[in-house]
Amino acid sequence: MSTAYDVIVVGVGGMGSAAASHMAARGLRVLALEQFEPGHSHGSSHGLTRIIRLAYFEHPSYVPLLRRAFALWRDLETGLDEPLLHVTGGLDVGWEGSEVFEGSLRSCREHELAHEVLEAHDLTARFPGWSPAENAIAVYQPDAGFVTPERCIAVHTARAIQAGATVLTNIRVRDVVPENGGVRVRTSAGEYTAGQVVLSAGPWMADLAPELAPVLSPERQVLGWFDIAQPEAFAPSRFPVFVLDAAEGRYYGFPEYGVPGFKIGCYHHHAERVHPDTMTRTVSARDEDTLRQAVARYFPQANGAMRQSTTCLFTNTPDEHFIIDRAPSAPQVLLVSPCSGHGFKFSSVIGEICADLVQYDRTSHDISLFRLARFAGSDRPS
User: Fold this and answer.
1) 39 Rama class: left (phi>0) / alpha (psi -120 to 50) / beta
2) Residue 12: which of 153, 113, 118 has the closest Cα?
3) C-alpha distances in angstroms, 176 versus 16, 207, 322?
4) What does the alpha-carbon distance between residue 353 and residue 264 come to, in Å, rounded to a whole number?
5) CB 162: neighbour CB atoms within 10 A?
């Protein structure tokens, strides 16, 4: 079929903006479509800060991708007035035998990452914002920190446009139709054609790729920022980003940055399966209580009023690993992400992977963990 573009990117969030930037930089004719504005607060790529860490408890095979992601974030921030990546160090805290502690330690040892193991008293002495459980044990990895998602998306989008991409906003994609070796994308503003499409629509993925519906579960999340009695203990220089396995649940948090308050979230908050168009975005007293349980017990110096809050979405797969693969019935459709709440840090390298796959149909990066075939009973990750 005759096409106006080499590739259409659907969704200009973390993944889509990076993919558009990398592909346009290689000279591909790129159209990127976003139903809101890049950096919006309706999906999964907002909230001022996102953790980036090398000590990856989820699976050691992510570590090489993370090394490349770090390098690409540094490349992207070249020439900017303020960095996109802020290094604070990172803590993976749990107890002996807990998934977060043991998985993080496994990744550090397997990939020879600089790290320290801290007992509870070491954690308190070194990072006075903490009041850990007596049996707590932590992996400290000095390279971890956070990236600033709205700014990352803005820079990736600007770089894509500078390299010749067309980015159209406030356009809703209605469906993606493979035909004659290419693809037709029908939208609220008309139809567009291309040789390939990168579908990076986050929690809307199952609407546009129905074959994913059985394996995707969009989930409502809540983030809160709490008043701090001793702000110096929660400054980026004194308070590393963290993931915490605790009796109350699994939490993640950040030093004070950008706005007042200590930011914290709970993985799989209330396990609410939702659709992004109809989910409740108002934060309730019950939502606050879920976060405050951990704040009051483990970070009592930050147990003040909740200054602000927001909702976002995880798009979970059954094993909580990503999807980066061709659609089985339409190889011109590249399905990218559903990142189960831990993907934004990878968007710089996933953008590069998308460019490789669109341009060459292969990549030097190991993405075998992310194949769709695993959900059919084969290639299941260990």
Assistant:
1) left
2) 153
3) 16, 10, 21
4) 31
5) 11
Give dist(CA 339, CA 15) in Å, integer.
10
Per residue in 337-376, pLDDT tens?
889 999 999 999 999 999 999 999 999 999 999 999 999 8
Helices 347-360 and 149-162, axial angle in degrees (round to 10) = 30
Q: Give the Cα separation of 339 and 113 in Å (integer).
A: 24
pLDDT at residue 379 is higher than 50: no
- Quick: pLDDT tens for 214-261: 999 999 999 999 999 999 999 999 999 999 999 999 999 999 999 999
| Run of H or E including 349 | helix 347-360
Task: Convert the pLDDT of each residue in 144-197 to its tens digit.
Answer: 999 999 999 999 999 999 999 999 999 999 999 999 889 999 999 999 999 999
Which residue type does 78 have?
T
pLDDT attached to residue 376: 87
**Two tokens, residue 148:** 């600033």
- Domains along the sequence of the chain with CATH: 5-45+149-206+319-376 (3.50.50.60), 87-146+217-316 (3.30.9.10)
Q: Which residues, at least 6 apart from 284, have a Cβ–Cβ distance to it below 8 Å?
A: none
Rounded-to-integer distance, Cα 185 and Cα 174, Å: 8
Looking at residue 257, the DSSP 8-state letter turns out to be B
- Inter-axis angle of helices 347-360 and 14-25, nearest 10: 50
Using an 8 Å Cβ cutoff, are 33 and 187 in contact?
yes
Active site residues: 46, 49-50, 263, 268, 312, 345
Q: What are the distances in angstroms from CA 332 to CA 183, 322, 366, 369?
A: 7, 19, 21, 21
List pLDDT tens digits, range 266-275. Answer: 999 999 999 9
Residue in the structure block whose two tokens are 């840090």: 345
